[in-house]
Queue: 4 jobs
Job 1
Amino acid sequence: MFFFIAAIFGAIGQYLYKEGAESSGSIASYLTNPKLLGGVFCYLAVMVLFVAAFKKGGALTVLYPIYASTFIWTALIAMLAYGTPIKPINIAGMVLIMGGMYLMGK
């Protein structure tokens, strides 16, 4: 469950990085940009969730495939935020990711 939540935070972090990058100018602005800072917060949350999952005895071969669902969440966020279409080939890729997640957990 921790890695599933981490995957969602990871996708949100990617969205915030993209948004922050579009509204920042100089390197100094990276340190004061709220969206970039939100992205950093998301990745800190990912790290904490990873540690919590490992402390509970999670195996790398099971947990990291779950984190791969970040790609699916990111595609959904891009569709909602930017209108980026999810094409049939993208859906096929998502199905393969989910199949890989299942198989790696076996």
Note: The chain has one domain: 2-104.
Job 2
Amino acid sequence: MELQTKILDEILSSKKEIELILVNGFRMKGTIEGHDKFSIVFNSSGKQHLIFKHAISTFKR
């Protein structure tokens, strides 16, 4: 199993709120609802966002 998949699965199963920082500097707080090889589904302020992994800079727990 890839390290990235392992980390995302851990965050997903914990259902804890995280901060996502995108490569353009935009910050979002919310929870991960799901992920695949290229993208994640992120719930922030009651709205779902499809975010491509290449656009993510950092996860903060």
Note: The chain has a mean pLDDT of 95.
Job 3
Amino acid sequence: MNVQKQALRRSGRNRVVAGVCGGLAEFYGISSFWFRLAFLIALIPGGVPGLLVYLIMVFIIPSE
């Protein structure tokens, strides 16, 4: 059985801001809703933890 793993990329189709959540969802094979919810929850305690992680991922993960 040959299973080919897709590379992690920011999504061009499933994007709201920069495609990070859509890209993570495509990579892990789950709904992008869960990643968006996780980043939203990380924004609640003051914004910095979620926003900082998201911005880092925008610069690290290449676009498709």
Note: The mean pLDDT is 85.
Job 4
Amino acid sequence: MTLVLGKSSQVYYYSGEYGYTEKSEIHLTNFSSTGLRQVLLALSDRTIVQIKPSNEAKYQDMVDVLDEMNITDRKKYAMVDISAAEYDLIKNSRL
């Protein structure tokens, strides 16, 4: 699972590797208890979450996503640099 942090506390997420499948299904959520928290709770314990902040994400977004990792008891996650393709994705998103 990959989380891409965008502007205005938006969280884009998808499973697998973006661009490697014909139709990468991208979703949009926020940091509310009915948003990202529910997405994380639906994952299996074996899922590794990649967190990719964009240049438009705020420091508070990083704090919030790490809080959600703790609240949902996610043990496997990593902070990763955002790719150019993912940055274009959130920049041009119509979600």
Note: The CA atoms of residues 3 and 13 lie 5 Å apart.
